Amino acid sequence: MRAARREALRGSALETMGRRLAERWSNDRRLSAALALLRGVGGLDESIDGRRAKLLAQLAAELEARDPWTHGHSHRVARHAAAIAERMGLSERRVRIVRAAALLHDVGKINTPRAVLHKPGRLTAVELGLIELHPVDGAEIVSSLGDPELTAIVRHHHERLDGSGYPDRLKGTEIPLGARIIAVADTFDAITSLRPYRPARSHRRALEILEQEAGIRLDPVGVGAFRAHYHEHHPRPLWNPRRRAAQAAAPIGPSLGAAP
Predict the structure, then answer these.
(1) Are 217 and 256 spatial neighbours (Cβ–Cβ below 8 Å)?
(2) What is the per-residue burial (b if ≥16 Cβ within 10 Å, else e) of 43-52?
(3) pTM score > 0.85 for this model?
(4) Using an 8 Å Cβ cutoff, are 184 and 219 in contact?
(5) Mind listing the pLDDT tens digit for each residue in 133-178?
């Protein structure tokens, strides 16, 4: 009886494992197909509507399908980044570039080991080094679209005003404006999203952190634009005061906005 039960459990476990492997293989295969299609598309000198927009959306969706922890992250960052860019008075074309870059900003993580992305504890120096490669890998992938501004934004979206970011330790206005905009949007979404190593924090706490980092690590104009956009669309507080103390005590992670 026990032997039969063990065999049944073993069979069920193997079936589950096989199904997960099949899903992973299917996702990876579709992601590779999306990348191949993107490489065959021209640059972004004109509108990114139509086929290019569909391929960009497909690529972002396929990437997030591989990681339940960041599901919807790129689309939220793209929405926030576009709103910031509009409030900062960027042209319609540049707003589209920023939005496209935000959709693809984490595409380089296809080369990051999943064990590192999903690690529940603190990352080692080697693992942090692997994480810091993803903007470089992402820029290499995006460069196939033939738009230097888009490529530069993806490469530098983890740079910080004080030079503490990566991969090139750029400072201030050395960082492309689009990358500085995405850094604000990315930081807000990273703080308010659940991660393997920490719970999500409140919108209120995230806004406080953005304000603290404005002019130090994050673009102050971008932070101001995001705060104005947020308060216009969320006139009522979305946080629970009873959870504020617990969320404020939770660790942010190794780096603001740099979380896997």
Answers:
(1) yes
(2) ebeeebeeeb
(3) no
(4) yes
(5) 999 999 988 887 778 999 999 999 999 999 999 999 999 999 999 9
Of 178, 140, 141, nearest in space to 156 by CA: 178
Q: What is the DSSP secondary structure assignment for residue 163, as one 8-state letter?
A: S
- Give burial (CB, 10 Å; 0-12/13-18/19+) of 111: middle
End-to-end Cα spacing for the chain: 45
Contact by Cβ (8 Å): 202, 243: yes
Q: Mark out the alpha helices in 66-202 (DSSP H runs).
A: 73-87, 92-104, 114-117, 125-131, 134-142, 148-156, 177-191
Alpha-carbon Rg of the chain, whole angstroms?
20
Q: Where are the chain's structural domains?
A: 71-249
Name the architecture of domain 71-249. Answer: Orthogonal Bundle (1.10)
